[in-house]
Amino acid sequence: MSCLPRLRVLPCSACYSLSSSRNSAKKFLHSPQNHKCRLVRVAAAATGPTPTQDPDQEEGQDYTPCDFVIYCKDPVDTCHHEAGIWISAPIAKCFKMWNEWGNLLHFLDLVGDIHLAEHNKDTHALFFCYYRWALYPILEIAFILEKEEVVENKVIKFKSLWGMPLKGLVEFREQDGGTYVELRFEHLMPVLFKEYKIGVMAVESDMKKILSENMVVLKDILEGRLAIDDTDVTSAAGKSSS
């Protein structure tokens, strides 16, 4: 994959021009020109999802760009996910870890890149995630996420405005001298999964393992057993917003 910075601050108009068309989704390239990120459009075929080769991928590793990923509309194709963990850390520390976009890159390993609109970067972000089922091509899943309700040290509610249809929340509760953190969210499946005969329960089972591992990483960070390096996050944001 590309070694570009994983967190970027973007002009608001550039971020939201994505929502005008699926064809504009792939994607922002970090460019030094005018100290801004350049929006690059990639035309999508009208025939629906088609596996493609990314030039940054190793030879033989196919992937499906987000331009080619469409989503089911029937509620029966909704996946529900939840993961929780007790952390020996103050609730304010746990809340801050979730409430700052860049921190998510340290423990949610499906998230590849986060792009921030410069005028509302605290509440809106464009995510690029990468998911692979078995030996099928990697899916690039994109969505603009909005924090629709934030109650300090209690809850962060979110929903997508474009891209993968999803909504959910993160809750924080003081418990046994520490904090219990619980993530719950739901989303519609990519149509491509149905073509591959991948069911809702299979995706939920796989995601349960992934999210459980992510929560353990979160716990290790907040309890001081795992150090994190913010250099890539802070330098990327600083350069892009300068």
TrEMBL record:
Q: Where does the signal peptide begin and end?
A: none
UniProt-listed InterPro entries: ORF3, START-like_dom_sf
> What name does the UniProt record give this protein?
Coenzyme Q-binding protein COQ10 START domain-containing protein
